[in-house]
Amino acid sequence: MFSPEGPSLRELAVQALSSVERGYDLLAPKFDHTPYRTPDPVLDAVASALAGLGPFDAGLDLCCGTGAGMDVLARVCRGSVTGVDFSAGMLAVARERARPLPGGPAVSWVRADARALPFAPAFDLTVSFGAFGHFLPRELPGLFAQVHSVLRPGGCFAFPVVAPPRPGSPAYWALLGFDAVMRVRNALWRPPFVMYYRTFRLGDVGRELVRAGFRVDLYALPEFGRRPDGSPRVRLVVARKAPPVRAGGPRRARRAGTGSPESP
Q1: Model-level pTM?
Q2: Are the CB atoms for 60 and 127 separated by under 8 Å?
Q3: Which of the listed CATH numbers 3.40.50.2300, 3.10.450.50, 3.90.76.10, 3.40.50.150 matches domain 38-164+201-241?
Q4: How confident is the model at residue 258 (pLDDT cuts 50, 70, 90)?
Q5: CA distance linking residue 10 with residue 192, whole number of Å
Q6: For residues 242 and 157, is the Cβ–Cβ distance under 8 A?
Q7: Residue 261's CB: how many other CB atoms inside 10 A?
Q8: Chain centre distance of CA 158
Q9: Chain centroid to CA 214
Q10: How many CB atoms lie within 10 A of CB 200?
Q11: Helix 140-150 to helix 202-211 angle, to the nearest 10 degrees?
Q12: 241 vs 37, higher pLDDT
């Protein structure tokens, strides 16, 4: 699973027995050499899909880690891009590895908890990659409310979601086993390390986004094909903050982009 430059088994064990914040501080120097980093094909597919939904001015990478998602924002945002994470170690690596392009958007980094974002409604696009397993289901309403609060009217919150493995498949049992181990670990050890792969379910997520005030569309990412039942292997969730209603009644929002979104 890991390259020679990745963390050792001992380092992973120490991380797993730490808090989420401390664990990622420890993992940060080698994070990009682990399978936990979002793969480039996913980043490229999301950037391609978002390019048809813009243009965007200011972008925010929520739980940015070492900054892989910032490259996506830099491709679709014209003004500025901001990465926010609560791990000082991850942000340090992100700053060190950032290579702003001449003429590209301004880049900034902020240390903060995604559940208490220190921003005004200043962003046109928020993205997030691979971070939602660190939030318990009961935390999603507050998380989505925070994202809603930092978006400008009409702004988008976008993130990819991989279809769950087929019940009974090796991947299904692997994820089930991982979550079971984490639950036992958190029952026996403090501080807890919240990382569950099976708690972020698309149907529940869609309902919570709507409750937070978003209009939700789903876009298939064709680069990853479809499952035997015809459903996409990977979808892009695009949750748009409703624009203000003008005097004289509601105005139908223009739907940008190519292709037709699926029903959430």
Answers
A1: 0.86
A2: yes
A3: 3.40.50.150
A4: very low
A5: 19
A6: no
A7: 16
A8: 8
A9: 16
A10: 18
A11: 50
A12: 241
Strand partners, 217: 238
Residues 6+ apart with CB under 8 A from 4: none
Residue spans of the domains in the chain: they are: 1-36, 38-164+201-241
pLDDT tier at 242, thresholds 50, 70, 90: confident
How far is residue 235's CA from residue 257's CA, in Å, rounded to a whole number? 15
> What are the φ/ψ torsions at residue 199 (nearest 5 degrees)?
-95, -10
Task: Please answer whether residues 126 and 214 qualify as being in contact, where contact means their C-beta atoms are separated by less than 8 angstroms.
Answer: no
Tokens of 218: 């789903």
List pLDDT tens digits, range 56-68: 999 999 999 999 9
Which residue type does 35 have? P
Please, what sign has the CA dihedral across residues 140, 232, 83, 119? negative
Q: How far is CA 203 from CA 114, 137, 140, 210, in A?
A: 22, 12, 13, 11
